[in-house]
Amino acid sequence: MIKIKQLKQQNEIKRLFKLYLEGETNARQEELLFRQLNEGGDKDPILFEEMKDSWENEPSSPDNSQEAEESFDQIWLKVEKKSHKRLQRVQVMKYAASILLLLSTGLGWYAYQKKESIKTVQLISKITRAGEKLKLILPDSSVVYLAGNSKLNWPSHFTKGNTRNIYLEGEAFFEVKHDTTSPFIVQTANLRTRVVGTSFNVYAYPDDKLATVTVKTGKVAVAENVKGKVKRLSFLTPGMKLIYQQNNGKYAVSSSTNVNEANSWTLNRFVFRDESLKGVLAGLERYYNVNFIQKGKHFDHYKFSVTFSNKNIKDVMEQLHIMSGNKLRYKITNNNTVITVWEEAAK
Question: Which Pfam families match (predicted)?
């Protein structure tokens, strides 16, 4: 009966040892492995041979990097601390001699995996042209709709338990896969938007005065992040919109936004609320891939609240012409250029 128990214990140690080398052990299993070795597992000749083989099969050139040294020190301190209560210093060193093979092999695997991780985790970048829309699927199955004249950077894969960091220049609508252990963070020039699982729109073109975050579902935390200094701004829930002035950091929060407007542009429905004509034309440039030439004044003086649903650029301009009381004149050329003239007194 005792031999059967010892055999089971030996097999368990070997099983945990193999898992350790493969990087598949959790904290509890590693604690159990060290404890069993401390209680006599290091005297097991079969396990010792297995450890010896692993040591001999390791690459001859050791990893002397600072990270490897620090990792070894941390593990060594844990081993010494756990063993000190029951063993004298001499006994600890005797124990350490036998377990050194295990530690060295494990550290070699750790350093190798870390280097491989750095090699394989690449930053993927996508840039859209004016008038272009892209639907992207991220490694965690989150969905991103990228608007025109925008750029999105993201890692080739996400690590469970770590933050999912995304970098945006321009506009994008996000449908984030829920994962409470891995917060999803969208970083723009000045804003950091943090979520767990929700859908929201971020508008943050570097050359625009305003940046906005609009929530459709879930909850969003928005913070200012300028030169590494983070300042929390607001928590947003569905229908809320944060409007941030990129030149001075001032912001306001609106709670009356229609949730369906958050991603309306992905459905070719463009909504402008109390927007200057200059701002409307800037948005239309990105959505329709046209170039506006503005002649005259007053493009910044007048505000428009308008919606364009599945209209071509000619119909859009005609609608603006009528809404302006015929003061906005336009001419569409053959090379996707729209010449606009504002006449204060139409004749």
Answer: FecR, FecR_C
